[in-house]
Amino acid sequence: MTDPKPTASHYVNGNYVEDTRGEPIPVIYPATGAEIARVYAATPAIVDQAISAAKSAQPAWAAMSGMDRGRILRRAADIIRERNRELSEIETMDTGKPLQETLVADAVSAADALEYFGGLAASLTGEHIPLGDGNFAYTIRQPLGVCVGIGAWNYPTQIAGWKAAPALACGNAMVFKPSETTTLGALKLAEILTEAGLPDGVFNVVNGAGAVGAALITDPRVAKVSLTGSVPTGKKVAGIAAGEMKHVTMELGGKSPLVIFDDADLDSAVSGAILGNFYSTGQICSNGTRVFVQKGIKEAFLGRLTERIADVVMGDPLDETTNFGPMVSQAQLDIVQRYVAKGKEEAARLVTGGARPDRDGFFIEPTVFADVTDGMTIAREEIFGPVMCVLDFDTEDEVLARANATEYGLAAGVFTRDFARAHRVVAGFEAGTCYINSYNDAPVEAPFGGVKASGVGRENSKEAINHYSEVKSVFVRMNACEAPF
Ligand code: NDP
Fold first, then answer.
1. Is the minimum distance from the CB of 233 to ligand 1 under 6 angstroms?
2. What is the pTM for the complete model shown?
């Protein structure tokens, strides 16, 4: 088994660096609660070193051809794939997510981003705009400078990859701060980028809690902040960034609707609901946690769902037969337990789950509440755990209005065999990322992000390029320049 202990707490200017004067941060294996490693929060000196390194390295990186930058990113993607098992084991120990998942969804997803944006790097060009009389304008697409990435704890390696790949492809440098709950994956990404030939200082990782994030985003040398996290943190960070006119991308939380019409393929719809509520033990921002089921199939849906949940294999996440792991931390487990208690108190019907198994670690059973109504706390607030709320509905118009009646707008899904209806419903969803007869796909080729309180900007796809670069317009006069006097 891979040793999860990192070489040091931070990665700055092409090297691991340590400063044990920083606040100690334990790395806890969520399946046992045991400390398996320790890092130290970045001191102000480390934060300054990281931003200085990024600032110094960025111009030369931007001056390289897109072809050369892209080749380095694609080489990093290859190394990640070669080392996938080691990286996945570290991710599992860091997050508690089953190895069965991390082997296919985490480092692999970061590799996809590096390969995709590495491929795009040589094609990032401006345009030529003819203006008559031989005059013209042209545009130059240029990097922003030093970008800060701040990650959540549910997909630490993927989030680091999704932010680093487009930022670096565009010629920016980055300082990335992982969540203090999951400190390991981004360090490995930095190490691999160096091995792939990335110049020192172009990608740096500093560990630490919110205070380190705050120090990064307020630094005047930083041009952009891309945060994955909760809505309250996003509002705070975006507010600070706006005050200094910095660019932002905000990938925030949600309470997304999943609408199942009575003509849907039942097993397929149940699969969608499972993927949208229990994958990664429910710790996914885009989860469809408000499952609206048309009344005619409600009991059939609940019956089939309960049968399928009986196939859950809860256990040691490092055992590849385990398909359901613990929560990431005691704190997150406590939050989920409070919501389960609230659901019972507000008289939702507990169909299955809700209890903690008799074992160490931060485990809780996959939980389904039925007869949930729109006003209940569990139907309104993001739980970020394996708690599915099933709500009934009668008509399409009714369900669309109820699905949209939330401050969030990250994702939404619909299951039906009637494709005209599917497209109509999707057109009406107030959400940035929608699914028809599927749930939670996140290919790098397609944009990902939210509307309303769920975020600003898009990650992945060509869209991300617009959020990591800006356009300079150049007007060219080919004849004499005239003035009124
Ligand atoms: P938080 O909002 O608590 O934290 C997100 C990151 O921001 C962490 O690295 C955190 O540091 C940092 N941070 C906290 N305060 C500040 C500050 N004042 N300035 C700068 N940085 C700060 O989110 P969680 O880590 O708890 O993640 C769960 C949330 O993330 C959920 O709401 C979920 O929906 C959302 N999420 C959204 C995704 C999306 O793509 N839309 C994907 C995944 C998750 P630290 O925690 O170390 O103190």
1. yes
2. 0.97
